Amino acid sequence: MFKDEALLLYGDARMDSPGFSAKYCVYTIMDHYLDIITDVEIVDKREAGGTSTVMEKMGLKRIMERMMEKLKIKEVVTDASNVIIKLLRDLKGWFEMCIII
Question: I need a surface site. Which of 23, 58, 63, 91 has the fewest CB within 10 A?
Fold first, then answer.
């Protein structure tokens, strides 16, 4: 369905509880034009050493690695977390532009 399309993706993470006590992080990526969820990743805090920012980074990285293998990504829109900005800069060769909001 998406193989020949240049995707504009936007995504964000949601923790299962506020603050530093989150046990799970759910990262969701959507396509802007079709307005559908294209991928979801759930990260357990034990995988990330109990750090919520690392959980968010791991979720986005796993999604991007899966999607970049099979799909053409034109742009990614996400939040302005320092670890997310660094991750997207490291992956930048795989898509045209990232927008941090």
Answer: 23
